[in-house]
């Protein structure tokens, strides 16, 4: 019954394709419907947005016209080419030669690759690196082959971050300015430092303000309109 309801299309290919879900008319009380509903709730809570398009499969994507007249794309599924993210390596679309080596595509698949590349460049390329939500970042990293372990705990942690106010946006600012990647564990240690390094509430507050970027930095000062005048308004320049 469930196979008939989704017409053989994997449930994973339906997650972010609402048009395809409507075409299939999946009953809410079916097993497939029970899988889709929690995903829709997570997508709303974590504000996944357009980045979820990476989860569509080129073999079934309702917006990818070539798959409607060419069933060859469905054979790619058995080769490991499922969602569009499976075509990506280190932030760029893989070359046809790389897909031949990694997934066994044949020469006659080249023009199909060009069709996928055209669709990708037009609709998805600009979304690379804009995962936006911590949940989507975790989810995309875990659906890659040979992904890291602790899948459930990482998804749970990412979901919890979406549900509450957090300092993730501050961490991203530090990463961008310093051009480094700060691990979640490392960021937690940084945030704990003000409370374990001193018993003085005054110094704790001062340290925490440094971490949370409360003070105006030289970079921020470049965008002020008062020039280099002292913040004390005493008439001097460059006073500290």
TrEMBL record:
The keyword Nucleotidyltransferase applies. Keywords: Nucleotidyltransferase, RNA-directed DNA polymerase, Transferase. One of its GO terms (molecular function) is RNA-directed DNA polymerase activity. This is Reverse transcriptase.
